[in-house]
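Hi both,

Apologies for the delay on this - the queue was longer than expected. I finally got the pyridoxal-5'-phosphate-bound model through. Below you'll find the protein sequence and the ligand SMILES exactly as submitted, and right after that the structure tokens for the full complex including the ligand.
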Amino acid sequence: MADSKGTLPRVAYFCMEYGLDNRFKAYAGGLGILAGDYMKGAKQYDYPIVGIGIKWKQGYTDQFIGEDGKPYDSYRNYNYDDFMEDTGITVNVEIRGRNVACKVWKLEAFGNAPLYLLDTDVPGNEDGWITGQLYGWFGEERIAQELVLGVGGVRALRSLGIEVDVYHFNEGHALFAGFELMREKMEDGMTFEEAWAASKNEIVFTTHTPVIQGNESHPVDRLMYMGANLGMKPSQLRRLAGDPFNMTVGALRLSKKSNAVAQLHGETANQMWKHIHDRSDIVAITNGIHQGTWVDQAMLDAAEAGKDLWEPHLKNKRALIDLVKRKNGVTLDEEKLIIGFARRSVPYKRSDLIFSKPEVIEPYLKEGKIQLVFSGRAHPLDDTGKAIAANLVRMSKLYPNAVVFLENYDMEIGAAITRGSDVWLNNPRRPKEASGTSGMKASMNGVLNLSVLDGWWPEACQDSVNGWQIGNAFESDNLEEQDDNDREALYDVLLNKVVPTYYDNRKKWLKMMHASIQSTRDAFGVKRMLEEYYDLLYTA
Ligand SMILES: *Cc1c(COP(=O)(O)O)cnc(C)c1O
């Protein structure tokens, strides 16, 4: 990459959520964490990038555990006046036949490139609720939110006088920005076909979930009723992405290049969308993390200098133990192995796989040889996800000294667990985990990954050298068969390799921590990711 970035394309990055700081509740999970790290990387490495997002009044749910051991949701109104600057600009978007004013805020407070946030909670707006809750709803309300992000976002850029060469949609939520780009061109006299081709040339797209239900779609009638067509006819919407109109398909057809978020995900995504003709190529760009946010510099320095890693690690482990004590009143043993597992609560991540044969795991938990720290949030409307969290809470009551569930998973908890655990456990049903950045945070902190070969891990894993692989990339359409296979593989490596190495071979453990840090610090940093975005997406 050239030193001078003056000639690089100027990028506007659109995302529904940004995980920039724990005080700023504008994120739900991995998508937002990626966007937050990207914006910080853009600032740190001086790229001509601005972000477009939404100022969520209530953010995502705060999810606590009730007396009955079940998660419940709670929302409050946030005030971000300390972080944000009023640009003085308001743009208008017509939604469901009504004019919606969107105020534009600027946020640069967290070491990030400029992020412009749209806000409908302004006096005189009947539709102030639109920017109320992140992912609060699925139907018309979601479309309204996406119209604010996409259409409002492009109009904000115009009003601010920010010139843009490339529009980057992080996930399909931003697709209506592409409709607005087309509308502008049709207003200037282009035909639908011409506007499509010209807009496509300015747009790149990052696709995420390999879970088909995770890819949002809407009946064309609903898009028309909401005014999301921006002047296009129903037949034209169908040509873009079918009926129901699939937002991911639309983004794949309205972009010049797309990317998946890990190499394996590149294969999965190409397979998943191979029946879609006229779509952009999907290249693979593995996610990277912003070290300044997630990684303890003392660990990086000690690893670089070949110094002892246990002392700085123990400091992080104690910080996690303190956090657990403060939040849950449980005192974990710093001498004993701590395994961390923090996730959105969704079935494919299989948070409770490790408990599925109690006769195998129970003796280790009773003896305290294995201590498990969990955290997780489910989508407020996802009862299955909540049942998973409730089951983990039940386990923490069954093994009160060895199993902990930290309620209301957030960036603070995420950072503490990926710094202070000894092992990071990851056992999704392959190949459902697109990337998984938590494992990267862990590995650079010398927290050893114990993971199935999914997401980013096949690229990094050197088994028994810098972490461990669970099983051999087994996949099956029969869920029971897959779970049986992976559970046995997990027990095998956990009980025959991880536990003995931790207790009986500290020298090897330290060597592995060293290898974990050194083998991942550059390859999975946001710097490499940004370079690849420029090489493979923005300038390609
Ligand atoms: C890092 C992080 C994520 C991303 O997690 P993955 O499950 O690895 O994708 C999500 N939420 C929080 C709070 C995080 O810190």
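Main takeaway for now: The mean pLDDT is 96.

I'll put the files on the shared drive as well.

H.
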